[in-house]
Amino acid sequence: MGILGTTLTLLVGPTVAVPAPPTMIENLSRVDVTTSDEGRSGFQLTFDAGRSGPMDLVDYPLLLNPLLKPFNRVILLVVFGSLPRVLMDGIITHQELTPGSRPGASTLTVTGEDVSVMMDLEEKSAEHPAQDETIIANLLILQYAQYGLIPTVIPPIAIDPPIPIERIPVQQGTDLQYLNEMAARHGYVFFVTAGPAPFVNMAYWGPPPRLSVPQRALSVDFGPETNVDSISFRTNALAPTRVSGNIQDRTTNQTIPVETFVSTRPPLSSQPAMLTQSSVRSTQLRTSGLNAMQAFARAQGTTDASSDVLTAEGQLDALRYGDLLMPRGLAGLRGAGYAHDGIYYVKRVKHSIKRGEYKQQFTLTREGSGSITPAVIP
To answer: Does residue 109 share a domain with residue 183?
Structure first.
């Protein structure tokens, strides 16, 4: 499927995805891929599903094609310019047929999620003796090596290896639920990124990755260099949250105060709301059975996770942008004024691909207004 110099390749199959047959590609009318640093990423393929001959009297030919059955694997490759990228490596989970009222108007929509959906199928009651959260995360991810998952696990601030005579971590739920549960304790995220090569996926468990090289700038109202079709900004003054309270250290039985003041994530704005607002929400620390270091780490995780105050949402044309905006990294923004210019964290991107068109909807976040840099990468 070609889009003005951009080539989209579809691989699909039950175990090993293979290039889709030409008839399937000809009927492919639209591709949507949504990637985010929270929850599973997803894809949707829309096909023209009309019947055209006597061989189609039994059923729609695409429905009879075994390649589009649920739980088959789908890999989407995009060559933008000369650089190939794996846009999605996922599993088909839904089919939707919409018969048309006129010839050629029927559509078949195939929807799926990234390969982490396979980690969410079986609930378990399992113990993890003498394993801290970092070890558990690595072991859970490695169980799905058949989907090309390569773990990237960042240790939290406080690591407390459990001593079996004191406590044993217990998993109640699916592997994916437990990974997300452990991540939430520290303000971390868990997601799966397709690539860098087909049939390979990077499974990331750690803080939102905010230490990458910024992508090329999104330009707003910037004359001939404008590449953003639309954008809006939203500030949530109720988001910043500090945590305070007392914890009885389980090792010393001493009551120790715990309090957080500011996010520990790398700053992206010169005026973070947590420091500049006259009022900031405060919550009580309510937990037990931890030592002081663990309690502080969980309190700090709550504060870190609440630091995204300024959100920018918009749409761009990838062909005018000259590249693909990718989530889970940084990007510059210019032309929106000092309060909103600067570096942002790219939280979510939706790719919408049709013949002759490549649009991207994006969500950017940071902890406040004001740029920390006089210029961004153009």
So the answer is: no
